[in-house]
Amino acid sequence: MAPLTGARRVVVKIGSALLVDRVSGALRADWLRALSQDVAVLRQRGADVILVSSGSIALGRAVLGLARGDMPLERSQAAAAVGQIRLARAYEEVLAPHGITTAQVLVTLEDSTDRRRYLNSRATLETLLGMGVVPIVNENDTIATDEIRYGDNDRLAAQVAVTVGADLLVLLSDVDGFYTGNPADTPDARRFDVIDSITPEIEAMAGDAGSGLSKGGMKTKLLAAKMATAGGCAMVITEGSPDNPLKLLENGAASTLFTAQVDPQAARKRWIAAMKPRGEVVVDAGAAQALANGKSLL
After folding, report:
1. Quick one: pLDDT at residue 285?
2. pLDDT along the chain (298 residues), means of 10
3. What is the largest CA-CA distance in the chain?
4. Phi/psi of residue 272, each to 5°?
5. Which residue of 4, 202, 268, 285 pairs with 250 in a disulfide if CB–CB is 3.0 to 4.6 A?
6. Is 101:94 a contact under the CB 8 Å cutoff?
7. Residue 179 DSSP label
8. Taken in order 123, 126, 131, 132, is the CA torsion positive or negative?
9. b/e sequence 98-108, b meaning 16+ C-beta within 10 Å
10. What are the DSSP calls for 50-67, one per residue?
11. DSSP secondary structure string for all residues of 9-42
């Protein structure tokens, strides 16, 4: 059964490399219109849909005529401010013909680490979904500094999925799943159909980001999978570049499914699962050995 079949609440992450042409910097409008058809089908079935979309910096960069490559933080924030309004308008224009109302939701890392802000963002998203709205979520790149930002929308999408209790997170990628090695330079790399547990061996297979536009590579996708599955949400990685990628996924397109934990967690545990780890605990050699052996220190 395709992972989309029967899903009642779906979060879809769309990266810059899919949404924006990497050469011209222009929006891939035809692709976005095709994606809107997929979203409309899900809505017609009664499924709630949230789109987590990158692209504001890439679109703003093109409008401002900024060269490709790394930019100082203040230039990235300026590009995000210019591009975000175009990004929101693009989604509104493709979804409105299907009778779908969109909403722009900008978040920062602090919205998941602070309990009150977490509950506030969850209430807002739940209200929008209850009204039949499709929220378009992005990190607030205009104000987020390096210290208070996710840095990639894979983990942001996972945090959103856990926050709203989604049963499926779909990461539309430039590859069709998780492989034993980088298929670009490892011809015999094998794709996993299903991953039930993210082991150290699985983590060792992840590579770095390969796109000139996106910041997320397989390492960040594995981190997203850990967050999502710990919160009771399954996650899929599939290729997003063809038109109608969600329809293709439902019809059996190649993908990797990370299965969710059997028992969904309580609301507070969902919040903890969505938090970015920070701080450290120092233990001595004996305690480290006990922890490695699965023993309690108490």
Report:
1. 83
2. 82 94 90 98 97 92 87 88 95 98 89 82 96 95 63 86 94 92 84 94 75 61 92 94 96 95 59 63 80 68
3. 64
4. -65, -40
5. 4
6. no
7. B
8. positive
9. eebebbbbbbb
10. EEEE--HHHHHHHHHTPP
11. EEEEEE-HHHHB-TTT--B-HHHHHHHHHHHHHH
Angle at CA 183, nearest 5°, toward 179 and 184?
150
Global pTM? Answer: 0.85
**Residues written for the chain:** 298
- Collapsed DSSP state (helix, strand, coil) of residue 131: coil
- Structural domains of the chain ordered from first start: 9-292 (3.40.1160.10)
Q: Please give the structure tokens belonging to residue 132.
A: 């039949």
- Predicted pLDDT of residue 296: 64
For position 108, what pLDDT does the model report? 79
Three-state DSSP state, 174: coil
Residue 124's pLDDT is what? 96
- Cα 121 to Cα 82, 108, 117, 129, 144: the distances in Å are 24, 11, 6, 12, 17
**Phi, psi for 71 (deg, rounded to 5):** -130, 155
- Predicted pLDDT of residue 122: 92
Task: Determine which helix (DSSP H) or strand (DSSP E) holds 138, and give its type and residue range.
Answer: strand 134-139
**Rounded to an integer, what distance in angstroms lies between the CA atom of residue 95 and that of residue 33?**
8
- The pLDDT score that the predictor gives to residue 278 is 61
CA separation, residue 196 to residues 29, 109, 259 (Å): 36, 27, 5
Assign 90 to helix, strand or coil: helix
Q: Which of 145, 161, 107, 141 is nearest to 274 (CA)?
A: 161
215 touches 147 (CB < 8 A)? no
Task: Provide the strand spans (E) within 64-125.
Answer: 102-107
